[in-house]
Design brief:
Helix content: 40-55%
Largest sheet: 3 strands, antiparallel
Number of helices: 7
Radius of gyration: 25 Å
Organism: Araneus ventricosus (Orbweaver spider)
Protein name: Zinc finger BED domain-containing protein 5
Number of domains: 2
Strand order of the largest sheet: 1-2-3
Number of strands: 3
Structural class: alpha+beta
Order of helices and strands: HHHHHHEEEH
Amino acid sequence: MDKWLKTGTLKRSASRTEIRTTDLAATEITVYQQDDNHEVQRPTDCPVQDAVECMFGEDHVQKIKNIPLSNSTVSRRIKDMSIDIEATINERIKKSPFFSIQVDESTDVSDLSILLVITRYLNVNELEKNLLLCYPLIKRYTGEDIFNAIQGYFCENEIG
């Protein structure tokens, strides 16, 4: 990276061999990709590592090797982020002097009914709007069932 910052361009700082190696490594990356959204195989001779070593050196390769790419790690982090977002929204609602909800039922592409609860609340003198709840409706629900589901969520999270 320092080479590029000093010279300003890749063409001036890299030899033809380095450029060819990088191009070859970049085209080979697609071979290692899987169909899962979060999963990439980590072969011992990863083309990304080859490109990084060629352009930046061995010390940067070690940083690349430390990046976790397992499906379970990425899935866990996504779940942790969603839990954190939900907790943040719930705390903001609790701190707000008032809030309102909008309830809507929608059907997704697999013909599954979904209950959506959108909330508006005051956060630091600004009105915010967020999705509070996305609840699958597996069977036929009445208005009372929907009310009880929302009330149960509010009681569980000590809102209101």
